[in-house]
Structure formats: C-alpha cells, structure tokens
Design brief:
With 254 residues, the protein is an alpha/beta fold. The chain is 39% helix and 21% strand. The strands form 4 sheets. A 4-stranded parallel β-sheet has the order 9-2-1-13, with helices on one face.
C-alpha cells in the first residue's frame, strides 16, 4: 500500500524538532521527520541539558561597543570570531548592540520568561508517556559570588527583574552553600539559589526517548537531507530532499 502523505514535515531530529513532531501528532497530524542523522546527535548532544531554565536574561545585556571590541580582541573571551569574517558578521553585531539597552533587555527577558517558565508542565506529559523521569533532576541552580556585596548588587539589579517575573530565588550564605554544594572551597562565601532549575543527565538519551515515543505513535523518520522548501501560492507544499520531493501540508524547520 502507498504511504499516506504526511500532514507535516519536520526538518531536524534534535530536541526542538522531535518535540514539534510530537505536538503536531497530538493534534491529530501525520508527521515525518527529515534528518539523515540519529536523533539528538547534533546541537542537542553537546549542550547543558537544561530543561527548566531560570536564567532568562540575554547574554548581551548591557553590552557596549567598547566591551564588544574588547571581547573580540581577547582570545579567552566567550565571543571569538575569525577576523576574516568580521565584516560579514557586522550586521549581526549591530543588531545585538541595538538590543542590549535596558528597555530591549527587559522586553526580551519577559518574552523568554513566558517561553521557559512552563517548561516542566509542557514536558510532563511527554516524560510520563516516554518513561523518562529517570533522566531529569530538579536540583536547582546555584550562582556563586565572591562577596555579599557582589551578590547583593546582582540581587538588586538584574535579578530583581527576574524575580518580578515570578522566578523564585533565594539569597544563600555560607551555611546554605555548605549544604547545597559541599565540595566548594572557601573562596565562595555566598550566592543565589534558583530552586526551579531542572536539567537532564543525558541530553542525547532524552531526545532519543522522545523520538522512540514519536515512532511508537505512528511517526516516520526519513534519513535523507533536506535541500529546500517548495512554496506555491505563499504556502509550503513540501521539501526537496536527496531522495526526491516529499509533499506535505506544512514544513517545520528545526
């Protein structure tokens, strides 16, 4: 019998792609994942495995042209690019600087909070169905400080914005640090604990379990590469792949 045309195609079998496919399935759609690799072996493999994130401020908050230049010149900074590509990247840097002011940072943080704060509830049904509760830990997150002055400066500054958005936090002293992280040396004396933070012990296994659930519910995974999206009348009609054209009613690029 010929295989029925999928209602949706999802390009990518990382955490975003597999979850998108599962939610399309839950709405009654027939879904095919397009990815030549194994699930969770791309960007979803080499990350921190954060499931519920409470650190929602953009990393470029408060960035200035001077600080940007200093970071680019420092090989040990988290921002390192090849100088030969700097000109091509300059529009991206300009957009980053344009969004680093207090008003834009507040708006971006609020948007990220809306996306991330319901992470546990969003995943809960999938965890139960996929039998993967053993892969998730709810241990919170501890941000360390060298002094109470440093901690309180953050507490009254950027962390105040997060607390106003409903992110629970607790100021921690030496006794708290000894209980939460007994292996810490004496250099760190205080910090801020975020109890809602959760992570997975194995990001690849996390995605693989969800992928197995997707297949068990009738989903398919074609191990081919996507070459381009076909569009007719302003709507996606399918994908050109290394194995020919695959028609579908919608396409998700993940």
């Amino acid at each position: 019998m010929p295989v029925a045309q999928p209602d949706g195609l999802v390009v990518g079998s990382g955490i975003a792609g597999v979850c998108a496919a599962l939610f399309i399935q839950s709405a009654g759609g027939r879904v095919t994942i397009i990815d030549p690799g194994e699930p969770g072996t791309g960007a979803s493999f080499g990350n921190a495995g954060i499931v519920v994130n409470t650190k929602l401020m953009p990393v470029f908050a408060g960035l200035t042209p001077g600080r940007l230049l200093a970071m680019l010149r420092d090989p040990s900074s988290p921002l390192n690019v090849r100088w030969s590509r700097l000109l091509g990247l300059s529009p991206w840097f300009l957009r980053m600087l344009a969004n680093s002011n207090e008003g834009r940072v507040r708006a971006i943080t609020r948007a990220l909070a809306n996306l991330c704060q319901n992470g546990e509830q969003t995943y809960a049904a999938l965890w139960q169905a996929a039998g993967m509760g053993d892969l998730v830990r709810a241990r919170g997150s501890l941000a360390l400080s060298l002094s109470e002055e440093d901690r309180d400066r953050d507490w009254d500054g950027p962390l105040a914005l997060l607390r106003s958005m409903g992110v629970p936090m607790e100021r921690s002293g030496p006794a708290d640090l000894k209980r939460l992280a007994p292996a810490l040396g004496p250099r760190y004396t205080c910090g801020v604990f975020s109890p809602d933070f959760q992570h997975t012990l194995d990001p690849q296994a996390f995605v693989a379990r969800l992928h197995e659930l997707f297949l068990s519910r009738g989903g398919t995974h074609r191990r081919v590469s996507a070459l381009g999206v076909r569009v007719e009348g302003g709507r996606a009609t399918g994908l050109d792949t290394t194995d020919g054209f695959v028609p579908a009613g919608s396409v998700v690029l993940a």
